[in-house]
Write a structure and sequence with these properties.
This protein has 3 helices and 4 strands. The chain is of the alpha+beta class and about 220 residues long.
Length: about 220
Amino acid sequence: MVRRINLVPADQRQRTSTDLGFVAVGVLTVMVLVGLAFGFFYYSGILSEKEAELADLQSQNAQLAAQVAALMKFQEIEAQRQAAEDLVRIIYAGRTLVSEVLGDLSLVVPDNVWFGAVNLTAGDPPPAPIAGQADIAAPAVVTHGSLSITGNTYSFEDVARFLVRLDQMPSLGLVTLGSAGDPVGTVDPAKEVRGFAVTATVYNTQSEDTQLPVSRVEVEAP
């Protein structure tokens, strides 16, 4: 077996020996660099995914904002519809039921009383509330109607009985006898006839929360 001979001088042999510490540092440095590179690419991928998710969420948010903006006009239309309905309801509840007043009047007229003229004026509905001033305590301006009747009967007792009956009507108030005596119009001179003139205030007997008589609303497609 041939023996290998080291031809390097003895004082130079230590320089050619492997520096394990330096090698270890180099390997460690390489591993660190590899780890940093791996981490960079890994977290770069995660960042890209998060940016894509953010862009998708922003796109969805923009779509939702557009839908909300489109629905806002329907909210405004609903508010206008509700305001119009409230106005109509106020007018409906504030109107004087002339037909009921005349119907009740026909029930209280004695058989021996007949009219020469009847004038009935209905009051105006209460004013609608002003938008934005619902919380302001202001008295509503309510107007009442009026009723005037001229007619004839046969005695002053009949006139008094008629006044008492008028005073029992819930839609009338402040019943006042203006005059009584001379007949109204042309009458039979052979009979004793007493004429009279009566005035009264006409009130609205409907409740303020009276609802509109609407059971179904049909909307035709344009």
